[in-house]
Amino acid sequence: MTECYLDFNNVFEALCEQAAAHPDRRALIFLGDDGSELTVTYSELVETSRNYGESLSRSGLERGDIAMLLLPHSLEIVYAFFGGIHKGVVTSIYPYPAMNIESGKSCGMVKQALADIKARAVVTTSDLAPEFSDSGCAVFEIKDNGPLKITEASPALEAVRMDPRIAYLQLTSGTTGSSKGVMLSHRNILSFLESSLNRQSWPFRFRVNWIPLYHTGALMGALISSLMSGMTLALMSPSNGL
What we know:
With about 240 residues, the chain is an alpha/beta fold.
């Protein structure tokens, strides 16, 4: 095993190392809103995330393009995040509780956020996908085998292409205004892991998280740190966490 996280180029490489070391170990136990339970091994997580990344890339997204993830509590968020890291697509998870409010207002907020961060694509559910056909962004709908592009980006879209050192765009809460995008580089994430984890002596093998993944504390402190340590993480629905 690699001694230092900073020796990796990104966290997907670190995840692949964990999968190579113990492919059949449980990586995630996903607990759905309906009480369902799904288990994903490390090898399955790497394979599915790689497929998600390939789907985005084949559909025209390039390294540095921004794709907003507008998805509920789901494994698809995890696959799309790591798939984006794998292919260099910069993802950004939109706070999904906002999707539960009145549809028109909610979609308007999302479209404003898409314009503010100059995203090239939005990845969402089949129910919500039609709402963004006029957003100017490419619209991807989640299918059984990954994201499928159903709407092309408008030629007039004012999208940006991020520096390849950028891994993820963290959205602020929007409490005092529209959400802002905060850039996290691959080096930022790997430095966090190096400073917060001692991979040779981490004493735990199982963790539980019910904080939504659009929070940095959940994404970095639970999901990424657990998987990079070879742990099993149970992802509970935020609505059932209390």
